[in-house]
Amino acid sequence: MAFDHRSFRQNLARLRDRIGSACEKCGRSPDSIDLMAVTKGFPLEVAATAVGAGLTTLGENRVQEGVAKIGEANFPANWELIGHLQSNKAQLAVKCFQRIQSVDSVKLAKRLNRMAAANRKKLPILLQVNTGEDPGKFGFRTEETEAVLHRLLGQNSLVVQGLMTIAPAPPELDSARQSFETLRRLRDRLEERLAIQLPELSMGMTFDLEPAIAAGSTCLRVGTGLFGPRPK
Ligand SMILES: *Cc1c(COP(=O)(O)O)cnc(C)c1O
């Protein structure tokens, strides 16, 4: 199936309208929110189209799929990992991705720190927190995040920029809103208690971007709302 460029442009316009109205309702500027194009499951051509339309942050949830696209891409973009990362792929992920949003264990974080140091780079990361307490999702428990962050403060090759969450299944706006507000409160508390800055709150996807914006999202991760259903 060839990619339909016209419906992509319509989807993008519709999405920008949704983001604009949600921002207006809570007095935020759309410029304070990055719209990540989630290209998992789609061919490289789709990523190229997104970048051509000005969406330069791309999200992949599988290391191998992402790395293959990054290797072939002949356009500049910020590729970020948003899916669970197995330790044995940490080295590859550090080399290829600009940021890892899905850091969900201290062991993984320490490994990423070692790999980043070996590559002489500072790796931006987010901590994934399972604020919706969904047993089917990865992420730290809300209550353990402060202790986790405390343990990571000495990992000098990591830059913890903030927190990420995925609303619990099944998709439901009220539970999404609650999980986003929990993430926002957790961030505020961590900043105060540890005297650090955690500017990034990655939350909100196609279905639940309005409550995410209201709760303070700085990164919306959108796939189907831009590109339609993912090919199987
Ligand atoms: C797939 C995915 C998205 C995008 O979801 P859509 O419903 O297609 O917008 C966002 N975040 C993560 C972590 C994902 O895996």
Description of the molecule:
With 232 residues, this protein is of the alpha/beta class. The protein has one domain: TIM Barrel. The protein is 44% helix and 16% strand. Helix 6 links the parallel strand 5 and strand 6. The longest helix is centred in the first third of the chain and has 22 residues, at 5-26. It is globular. The structure holds pyridoxal-5'-phosphate. Pyridoxal-5'-phosphate binds next to strand 8 and helix 9.
Descriptive tags:
232 residues; binds pyridoxal-5'-phosphate
Major pleated sheet: 8 strands, parallel
**CATH uppermost class:** Alpha Beta
Unique ligands: pyridoxal-5'-phosphate
CATH architecture: Alpha-Beta Barrel
Derived structural class: alpha/beta
Percent of residues in β-strands: 15-25%
Mean pLDDT: 97
Helix content: 40-55%
CATH topology: TIM Barrel
Radius of gyration: 17 Å
The CATH superfamily is Alanine racemase
The number of helical runs is 9
**Total count of strands:** 8
Structure summarized in a few sentences:
The chain has helices spanning about 5-25, 45-50, 65-70, 90-95, 105-120, 145-150, 175-195, 210-215, 225; strands spanning about 35-40, 55-60, 80, 100-105, 125-130, 160-165, 200, 220. Strand 4 (about 100-105), helix 5 and strand 5 form a beta-alpha-beta unit.
